[in-house]
UniProtKB/TrEMBL annotation:
Pfam families per UniProt: Aldedh
Lineage: Eukaryota, Metazoa, Ecdysozoa, Arthropoda, Hexapoda
Entry coiled-coil feature ranges: 329-356
EC number: 1.2.1.3
InterPro entries in UniProt: Ald_DH/histidinol_DH (IPR016161), Ald_DH_C (IPR016163), Ald_DH_CS_GLU (IPR029510), Ald_DH_N (IPR016162), Aldehyde_DH_dom (IPR015590), ALDH7A1-like (IPR044638)
Active-site residues per Swiss-Prot or TrEMBL entry: 285
Subunit structure comment from the entry: Homotetramer.
GO MF annotations, alphabetized: aldehyde dehydrogenase (NAD+) activity
Residue ranges annotated for the Aldehyde dehydrogenase domain, each copy included: 59-487
Record carries keyword Oxidoreductase: yes
Matching CDD domains: ALDH_F7_AASADH
The protein, known as: aldehyde dehydrogenase (NAD(+))
Keyword check for NAD: yes
Record keywords: Coiled coil, NAD, Oxidoreductase
Length: 507
């Protein structure tokens, strides 16, 4: 299963069930010379989706679809509940070894993982692009995020500190010491298949936790080779690809001390409730519905450039994509006109995520495509105006036109929900204060941005009555987040929760 030169990258798989497909293995993209990097990463036509120290899988065989052309990449044999049980038992046993290592020693292992990722940066980036659909610079950038968090975690491994506090009792010392939780679970989403796992696993590992990853609709990446070279149990980083039954088991399992979930708000709420039933810990990164506000004194050249990528980058499939563009009435028409021209300029650069000229790749799946079509139909029913786009492209793959919508009220049900596609609703506000209130009125709240030249506006925006989102930006777009700061907190804990409750501001 694992090639001699690339054991670390033995399984990287995005699974979408296609029971009716008749493609033979010879037609899989993994056997196409254009995609030779897949075999370089140790992939085969059919791959195991479970790792507890040994590669295996007893569940359903599913096929990975390339969203740029609709073709099968390869197959993976998923895990069933028996496989899940073996993974939990193995990662629990591995914790007894892992937790005994000094934190700097654990950091050294994570450093080696980062170096191994560096050695395969480009082929892994291509794999993200071919499976998820994001353009190649973004695919490579996502792998780099995992590398960066490994570097961050290495430093953290030598700076995990406690405290010495005054004791009320004579002759006593009060010590505060942090200990690892134990086995933790990670359920990641399709849109950031490597980065989300990296953010969770690198930090968890240096803290002394073992990790069980359910990569439903995602891309498993196992660090088996590095662990083996250090004579450590492979189940320090276990994997169980599977369906909803695996996720439900993780949420209900008392042996999983913390469960990190990235995905839809609807499913995330169910996960949070199930984990809370057993008084477990959860870490949820869910809905964004992010707003970008443009004040009447904003630099409009900066606004248009920033807004373009924030709205259409990753085909609108980022948690931090701009969904609502709230424009001051004095600049509304100019920004709208200039943004439509900018969209027109990138329309002919929609295409295969691996191609150099591509700026906008496909949606991830047929389900995403259908949701886009349903949303466009509902926009028309609600009386909205399609200023640009609104169509599915007639070509192989799951491509749509980036879409600009006007004519809907700020409190419309469509404006308060997320389609997770390149659709932006443009709203007209009378003042920055009104725009801030509209920013805060939605139940989601991950990222937000204000473009202005006014220091008064800036301090109102980042103050206690300003944006209530986890990330509060000034004169930069909503998309993206830095690894060194907390993000995700909002007034509704089930929407977006982080271990830290501090809001991060970028100016």
């Amino acid at each position: 299963m694992i090639s001699a030169s690339t054991k670390l990258f033995a399984l990287y798989k995005n699974t979408i069930i296609r029971r009716a497909m008749t493609s033979s293995a010879s037609e899989f993209l993994i056997n196409d010379p254009k995609y030779s990097f897949l075999k370089e990463l140790g992939l085969k036509g059919t791959n195991f989706g479970v790792f507890d120290g040994v590669w295996k899988g007893s569940g359903q065989v599913v096929r990975s679809i390339c969203p740029s052309n609709g073709k099968v990449i390869a197959e993976v044999t998923q895990g069933n509940l028996q496989d899940y049980e073996s993974c939990v038992e193995a990662t629990t046993a591995a914790w007894n070894t892992w937790a005994d290592l000094p934190a700097p020693r654990r950091g050294e292992v994570v450093r080696q993982i980062g170096d191994a990722l560096r050695n395969k940066l480009v082929p892994l980036g291509k794999l993200v692009s071919v499976e998820m659909g994001k353009i190649l610079p973004e695919g490579i950038g996502e792998v780099q995020e995992y590398i960066d968090i490994c570097d961050y975690a290495v430093g953290l491994s030598r700076s995990l500190s406690g405290a010495i506090l005054p004791s009320e009792r004579p002759g006593h010392v009060l010590l505060e010491k942090w200990n690892p939780l134990g086995p933790i679970g990670v359920i990641s989403a399709f849109n950031f298949p490597i980065a989300v796992y990296g953010w969770n696993s690198a930090i968890a590992m240096v803290c002394g936790d073992t990790v069980l990853w359910k990569s439903a609709e995602s891309t498993p990446l196992i660090v088996a080779d590095v662990l083996q070279k250090n004579n450590l149990p492979g189940a320090v980083a276990a994997l169980c690809c599977g369906g909803a039954d695996i996720g439900k088991s993780m949420a209900a399992d008392k042996r999983i001390k913390l469960l990190s979930f990235t995905g839809s708000t609807e499913v995330g709420q169910q996960v949070g409730v199930e984990v809370q039933k057993r008084f477990g810990k959860h870490l949820l990164e869910l809905g964004g519905n992010n707003a970008l506000i443009v004040a009447d004194d904003a630099n409009l050249n900066m606004v248009v450039q920033a807004t373009l990528f924030a709205c259409v980058g990753t085909a609108g499939q980022r948690c931090t994509t701009t969904r609502r563009l709230i424009l001051h009435k004095k600049v509304y028409q100019e920004v709208l006109d200039r943004l439509k021209k900018a969209y027109e300029q990138v329309k002919n650069r929609i295409g295969d995520a691996l191609e150099e000229n591509t700026l906008i790749g496909p949606l991830h799946s047929k389900q995403s495509l259908q949701k886009y079509q349903d949303t466009i139909a509902n926009i028309h029913k609600q009386g909205g105006t399609i200023e640009f786009g609104g169509k599915v492209l007639d070509r192989p793959g799951y491509f749509v036109e980036p879409t600009i919508v006007t004519g809907l009220q700020h409190n419309n049900v469509l404006v308060h929900s997320e389609c997770f596609a390149p659709i932006v609703y443009i709203l007209q506000a009378d003042s920055v204060q009104e725009a801030i209130s509209w920013n805060n009125e939605v139940p989601q709240g991950l990222s937000s941005s204000l473009f202005t030249q006014s220091m008064e506006n800036i301090f109102e925006w980042i103050g206690p009555k300003g944006s209530d989102c986890g990330i509060v930006n000034v004169n930069i777009p909503t998309s993206g987040a830095e690894i060194g700061g907390a993000f995700g907190e909002k007034r509704q804990p089930e929407e977006a929760v982080n271990l830290a409750v501090t809001r991060g501001s970028s100016i």
